[in-house]
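To start, an entry.
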Amino acid sequence: NVYVSDGFMSRAALDMLAPYLDGINVDLKAFGETGEEFYHDVCGARLEPVKRNIAYIAQETDIWIEVTTLLIPGLNDDGDELRALAAWLAEVDPEMPWHVTAFRPAYKMLDRPPTSPRDLARVYEIGKRAGLHYVYVGNVRDADRESTHCPKCEQLLVRRRGYDVREVWPERGVCPRCGHVIPGVWD
């Protein structure tokens, strides 16, 4: 079972869910000082419980965790804060995948422009430079940045195009070129 969550829950709630989860994708919507404001003003929540839950899941459970950040121009796209976010994720677990996805104006946020592919590429590089092994862009077509490569030798392992998986390497969990162990849930 896979759960998509905003990550804003009590430890008791998380512990009740944990035995039933194989994986979880947590939205980390913003970070740093402006992240606290974003969580308060836009989400009606707080950043610290989300960070605490991400670290707990990654370091103290057997649940596979991935993190997603929807990049909203002018709200959560500050370079310094994204560098801090990526550095924090890498400190928690450099093998935890980080998905940076494009925003499209809708509903109560029609006043914001869509995220540009150029900005997604910039944040992808921020994640890689921070030491994250698996950074992906989403909600755009970018064959290289939405696919999985071995972090050691750069061998293409999973080719994606949007939500369509085009190619998966035959020996899941191990790079066929260099033998590097690739973490994940492969069954």
